[in-house]
Amino acid sequence: MNSAQQKIRTESLPSKSKKSRKYKKRSKYKVKYKEVDFPLLAVTVALVFFGLLMVFSASSYENVVKGFAAYKDLFRQGVFALGGMFIMIFIISNFNYHRYTMQFTKLIVFVVLILNVAVILFDPTKGASRWIRIGPLSLQPSELAKFAMVLYAANVLKRVEIKKTRSWKASRKVFLMAGVFAGIIIVLQSNLSIGAILMITSLIMIFLSGVPYMQVFSYIGVGVSMLVIAMIKEPYRMRRFLNFGDPFLDAQGDGHQLVQSLYALTSGGVFGRGIGMSRLKAFWLPEAQNDFIFAVVVEELGLIGGLILIAMIMTLIFRGIKIALAAEDNFGRLLAIGITAIFALQSLINIAVVIGAFPVTGVTLPFISAGGTSLVVNLAAVGILLNISRQSRKSRVPSERN
């Protein structure tokens, strides 16, 4: 073979460099594919679609009676669900959580504090000022406050294990900031439940950051005292607390919601009445698509449907705990713990209220209850969990050069 033939044959073959570039692109794509926490993503999407189904079912009767389309709430919730999932998958999960620096966090905290104070400038809804309304849109700043507080606490407490001598200063900062947030939410917005969840989450993060037990116990004592004062100050809170043990004593008053919720739970049986067949949602059960949507779930899907929903929520919490344990640094660990704690506390309190094991309070069921702000913020929080998982998996996957 002469030199000319050899040259033509060589040029006709694909070059090694092109092959290697293609292989590198494929391997890079595979690594990214493996970085995604699919169990967390799958259960989150499943909860969102389950929530859309139940919001439609719980709100359709009321919408039709009032002259609206049956799918009015479904359409609204669906728009927020699509927007929230886009933010979760394509923005937050790809934004390195290490970029949530203290300077960035302080800006977020400042903006959220202003928004939570600004609610007093808007007309109250159902006796409480909790929303900022601009035209057809509304924003509930207390939903932002929970996760802003988690971000702040994680930033402040991330070095406690390294610098034990400064643990008191760090934990005090977190507790005081949590107190400021909770105070604004409880006093200005009459929302004791969200304020309590915020404080409890902060205490959990303080405890797991490694501070001495005496600090934690002292903060718990102060927190419980604040809770008792807040309950005594408002008589309706004390009435709710005293009536939840036997709501039938005042079935037409403070015990009305819980009584109707218990009727819904017992009428569902094991297999339920069927989707859309709830009777109690027909103006018997107040806030059927919001705080008491779990009662509608059990009435229509029965005990089995309720247990399936609880299993999905437990899976979400389990994945959050697993991500926290596998995080590559204290910041990621505390951030994942705080986010997971909020999901766990809200779910526990909401279901406990519906079954009569906790005083009636306005806590929504994450991803299931109607509410655009809550859904978008919760999905964004899951996006942070997905990013923490991705970063920890990246640190364990060998680089392409090796």
Low-pLDDT stretches: 3-31, 398-402
Tally the beta strands: 2
Sheet bearing the most strands, described?
2 strands, antiparallel
Share of β-strand residues: under 5%
H/E series, N to C? Answer: HHHHHEEHHHHHHHHH
Shape assignment: globular
Secondary structure tally, helices: 14
The pLDDT mean sits at: 87
Give the termini distance in whole angstroms: 39 Å
If strands are numbered along the chain, what order do they take across the biggest sheet?
1-2
Structural class: mainly alpha
Helix proportion: 55-70%
Count of individual domains = 2
Compute the CA-based radius of gyration: 25 Å
Question: How would you describe this structure in keywords?
Answer:
two-stranded antiparallel ribbon; 14 helices; disordered N terminus; 402 residues; mainly alpha
Offer a quick outline of the entry:
The protein is mostly helical and 402 residues long. The chain is 69% helix and 1% strand. Strands 1-2 form a two-stranded antiparallel sheet.
